[in-house]
């Protein structure tokens, strides 16, 4: 079982505190939105089920299930679909009406690649862990009453820069964005359940 399957299982059964969610209706609605957006993307790009299936590395019947709303893709396949049609995962999932992906800052990505090339994967991974540790220390100081907002901001910036390098190193940038969409959607659902 891969990571995306585990995420799907957690989402289907319970929220973070173990309370059952109204999963059946919500999952059907999500599948319907996804299937409508997938069909629209396929029409706009004149893409057949066979061509999409070949690109995704799945059977044509799997694409047919996605298109009919009877099944939904895992995070990895969702990312591949978004990249294939050059649309955002958020749009495919119905979380936004804007189909366009956020532009990437190539100069920052080039800088991060250069750092990985110069110092290597092991050193940059160790630095990432160190920066996360330093952020943890600053947050603990704040929790104890210290007015250290500048230090917290600096450490958050360091951690974000190192995490960008880790995404490049492990070639998971698109997957991370897809999982973030999933996590934001799950948080949104939890907030709605809690507010009732």
Description of the molecule:
With 196 residues, this protein is mainly α. The protein folds into 2 domains: 3-101, lambda repressor-like DNA-binding domains (434 Repressor (Amino-terminal Domain)); 106-170. Helix content is 76%, strand content 0%. It contains 9 helices and no strands. Helix 3 (49-56) packs across helix 4, helix 5 (75-85) crosses helix 9 and helix 7 (106-143) crosses helix 8 (149-170). The longest helix has 38 residues, at 106-143. The chain is globular and about 55 Å long. Residues 10-22 have low confidence and may be disordered.
Annotation field: number of helices: 9
Query: H/E series, N to C?
Result: HHHHHHHHH
Please state the structural category.
mainly alpha
Task: Name the helicity range.
Answer: over 70%
CA(first)-CA(last) distance: 34 Å
CATH-derived architecture of the largest domain: Orthogonal Bundle
* CATH top level assignment of the largest domain: Mainly Alpha
Shape: globular
Quick one: CATH superfamily of the largest domain? lambda repressor-like DNA-binding domains
Beta content comes to under 5%
CATH-defined fold name of the largest domain: 434 Repressor (Amino-terminal Domain)
Low-confidence residue ranges: 10-22
How many domain modules? 2
Offer a few descriptive terms.
196 residues; mainly alpha; 434 Repressor (Amino-terminal Domain); 2 domains; 9 helices; 0% strand; globular
């Amino acid at each position: 079982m891969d990571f995306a399957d585990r995420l799907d299982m957690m989402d289907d059964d319970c929220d973070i505190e173990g309370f059952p969610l109204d999963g059946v209706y919500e999952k059907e609605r999500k599948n319907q939105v996804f299937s409508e957006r997938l069909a629209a993307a396929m029409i706009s790009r004149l893409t057949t089920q066979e061509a999409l299936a070949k690109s995704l590395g799945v059977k044509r019947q799997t694409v047919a299930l996605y298109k009919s709303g009877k099944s939904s893709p895992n995070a990895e396949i969702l990312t591949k679909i978004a990249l294939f049609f050059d649309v955002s995962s958020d749009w495919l999932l119905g979380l936004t009406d804007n189909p366009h992906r956020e532009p990437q800052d190539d100069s920052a990505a080039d800088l991060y690649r250069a750092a990985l090339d110069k110092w290597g994967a092991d050193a940059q991974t160790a630095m990432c862990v160190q920066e996360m540790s330093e952020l943890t220390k600053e947050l603990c100081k704040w929790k104890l009453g210290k007015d250290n907002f500048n230090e917290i901001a600096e450490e958050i910036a360091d951690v974000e820069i190192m995490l960008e390098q880790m995404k490049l190193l492990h070639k998971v940038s698109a997957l991370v964005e897809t999982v973030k969409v999933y996590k934001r959607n799950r948080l949104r659902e939890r907030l709605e359940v809690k507010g009732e």
